[in-house]
Write a structure and sequence with these properties.
The structure holds two protein chains of two kinds. Chain A contains 18 helices and no strands. Chain A is mainly α. Helix content of chain B is 32%, strand content 22%. The radius of gyration of chain B is 19 Å and the shape is globular. Classes of the chains: A mainly alpha, B alpha/beta.
Chain lengths: 432, 278
């Protein structure tokens, strides 16, 4: 699949029809991102044909969006880590420990240890807060060792992978903890944990307005400084295509209806069978995280420093940047994002198990790399990593649909990671 | 170069050693820097006055760059004293140096290759909007202005500096150093990657900065450059200072003798001078 992405990019980069190149230049579209969208389309259509039409259904795509969200959330943080020439192998275990702790807070510590009872209105937010703080603390601890003592990130987080997983077993002798607080469980999605038809349209329209505003504000800023402007038709085309994609996605989410059993349970015996589910809450969380981290990466000093460090660590230091602090902060952020994903995954299972997040590091790193993050440092985008997460999850979900055995799935996932990094290395060497 | 620099009161350029009694802009006293057992800089004392260019010369490994890295904060000295305006200061990192008005053009240029000219120019000193986010447009506009004066042919404002030519990259590094109200400028081989026209521009720039009262340490392997631009010349050999001479008192051959055999103009014989050319 990644091979497909490589081929597509070569096609756009090296022997483009003249008009296509000038079109892309005018649009100022990231060709790499475009190549990934094309690769994703090939994967989706391929699986759809092989599965006899059961891949591209609203139900499967909706599930895909929920499954991708937890990997995508962590992949946004992994981009910043890899861009600054580091790595985090502990994300799966940090996710496991924070998820398990949040489950403990809501099912044991608040109700029993403190004697406050189950399903209090504040339970979910308290559990979430504890998880986020714990994630930040773990990330900060690992980041501190990496940034200030010089132990390689690879070693520190490899150790973390074992330490944090081991701590889960220490917490409650490794029991499965269930069920969770009812409000907290909404974070995991499912028809109940979705925002419904009208709110989904509202989110879609808000997103379209956001696109239009960004285009207009950007154009105004360029004009103010007399910078070259993008042709008007290009602005309109970008706006129209972007909005169409957003509204199309909302339409798919609204074409997935409540399953009969759940609808009857939730809406009573004579519930209609065409109630749209809408966008799932974890997907909303993922979109929010993507926006925030993209903003951090491209519009804030922190992001500028992360990329500069990745481009030339010595130059960053000589430029007066506090490189150690910046590196440590990338790990704090990563820890927080692991906790967010931990909340999504525990809520989705409505329980915490000791194996939560196992092997997630592979999917997260693969998502970042497939999304264009380079191990040579300084290069990577947040939206790319989110797309990469969708690619990775599409592979897993498609193989599941085709009833591919789990060992074979692992073989494919592992190979995709290596091929993605390999392709990246070859292509950068060629373009250098 | 930039209007901001005229804020510093222009001092007349001084030929030779500054008049006694005037406080030097920079004094580096008895600086020692060792790597392992090797004394890269061994008890060197140099000074610099406002509006003065001090050339720092010596062969490869003489310790010029290492000495100057102690002033720019890239590497702390093991011992010795640094005084700015006669006051002892502590420079332990590049931020300290910049806060004291010390700007450096490094031989390696020290550019982040993956970001554009404006991002490099403002690296560590970004212009922010009032909402606390990066004002890339303002930074690009400012960069266009500075480059318009420094290297009018520079046009690639949107590309990563990795894809620029050596001369263009050097222009970015120079622009960064002169843009921020420097009082003390360190130039480590500033013309190494430049063509003749750009080199001439940098020479003019140095003369202009000097007339604005900025003190400049100029490191160069090109003895003619140094002779043309410097007021005084410090010669280093094997980590030690051979001596500091007024340019007007010496010939290029005598400086060459200091660089190669480590003898001061008074000590060197005619035969030794003649042998330099064989």
């Amino acid at each position: 699949m990644t091979e497909a992405s490589g081929v597509r990019q070569d096609a756009t980069r090296e022997r483009p029809p003249r008009s296509l190149r000038s079109l892309l230049t005018a649009l100022e579209v990231d060709t790499r991102l475009l190549g990934m969208v094309a690769a994703l389309a090939i994967i989706w259509i391929g699986f759809n044909i092989m599965s006899g039409g059961s891949f591209l259904t609203p139900r499967n795509l909706w599930n895909l969006s929920v499954q991708s969200s937890s990997i995508a959330v962590m992949a946004t943080g992994m981009v910043l880590i890899i861009v600054s020439r580091n790595i985090d192998l502990s994300v799966g275990s940090v996710l496991g420990l924070t998820g398990y702790t949040m489950a403990m807070v809501q099912t044991v510590w608040i109700p029993t240890t403190l004697g406050l009872g189950f399903d209090q209105p504040y339970t979910w937010i308290l559990a979430l807060a504890v998880g986020l703080v714990l994630g930040a603390a773990i990330g900060g601890f690992q980041g501190f060792i990496i940034a200030y003592s010089g132990v390689p990130a690879f070693i520190v987080t490899l150790g973390g992978l074992l330490v944090w997983r081991g701590l889960i077993f220490e917490l409650q002798q490794g029991q499965t903890i269930a069920p969770l607080d009812k409000t907290f469980a909404l974070l995991g999605g499912g028809p109940v944990g979705s925002i419904g038809e009208m709110a989904s349209w509202a989110v879609g329209i808000l997103a379209c307005l956001g696109i239009v505003y960004t285009l207009i504000a950007g154009r105004r800023r360029r004009r103010r400084y007399d910078f070259p402007l993008r042709p008007m038709w290009a602005e309109v085309l970008v706006g129209v295509v972007g909005s169409a994609a957003v509204l199309g996605a909302v339409m798919v989410a609204n074409s997935y209806f409540w399953p009969e059993q759940l609808a009857i349970e939730h809406f009573g015996p004579d519930a209609r069978l065409d109630i749209p589910v809408g966008i799932a809450i974890p997907v909303i969380i993922m979109l929010g995280v993507t926006l925030v981290i993209t903003f951090l990466a491209t519009r804030r000093r922190f992001g500028r420093y992360v990329f500069s460090i990745g481009g030339n660590p010595e130059a960053a230091e000589l430029g007066g940047i506090n490189t150690r602090r910046t590196i440590m902060l990338t790990y704090v952020l990563m820890g927080i994002l692991c906790a967010v994903s931990g909340a999504i995954q525990t809520a989705r299972l409505n329980s915490a198990v000791t194996s939560l997040g196992t092997q997630n590091e592979l999917d997260v790193i693969a998502a970042a790399v497939i999304g264009g993050t380079s191990f040579s440092g300084g290069i990577g985008t947040i939206p790319g990593a989110v797309l990469g997460a969708v690619v990775m999850q599409s592979l897993r979900s498609g193989m599941l649909l085709l009833r591919v055995d789990s060992p074979i799935q692992d073989i494919v996932a592992g190979s995709v990671l290596v091929v993605a990094v390999g392709l990246d290395t070859v292509m950068r060497r060629r373009s250098a | 170069m930039s209007e901001s620099m005229t804020a510093i009161e222009p001092t007349p350029a001084i030929e030779g050693t500054a008049a006694p009694g005037r406080v030097p802009l920079v004094e580096m006293r008895n600086i020692r820097i060792a790597f392992g057992g090797v004394h890269a800089v061994d008890g060197v004392t140099v000074d610099l006055h406002p509006g003065e260019v001090v050339g720092l010369v010596g062969g490869n490994g003489a310790g010029k760059s290492t000495l100057i890295r102690a002033l720019s904060g890239a590497h702390a000295a093991d011992s010795g004293e640094i005084l700015i305006d006669g006051r002892p200061v502590s420079i332990t990192n590049p931020r300290d140096a910049k806060a004291l008005g010390i700007e450096t053009i490094y031989q390696t240029l020290a550019l982040a290759d993956n970001v554009d000219a404006a991002a490099n120019m403002f690296l560590g000193r970004e212009i922010m909007t009032r909402f606390g986010s990066l004002d890339d447009s303002a930074m690009e506009a400012e960069t266009r202005k500075v480059m318009g004066r420094l290297n009018p042919r520079f046009k690639n404002f949107k590309t990563a500096v990795k894809s620029l030519s050596g001369g263009q990259r050097q222009s970015v590094a120079i622009a960064r150093a002169v843009h921020f109200n420097a009082r003390i400028l360190i130039m480590d081989e500033p013309t190494a990657a430049l063509g003749p026209a750009e080199t001439a521009q940098v020479r003019d720039l140095i003369k202009q900065l000097k007339s604005e009262g900025i003190g400049i340490f100029l490191i160069s392997h090109d003895i003619h450059d140094v002779f043309d631009l410097s007021d005084r010349i410090c010669v280093m050999l094997h980590g030690k200072l051979v001596g500091t001479v007024n340019k007007s008192d010496v010939t290029p051959d005598e400086v060459l003798a200091m660089i190669i055999i480590g003898k001061l103009p008074g000590e060197v014989t005619q035969t030794e001078l003649a042998a330099l050319h064989h």
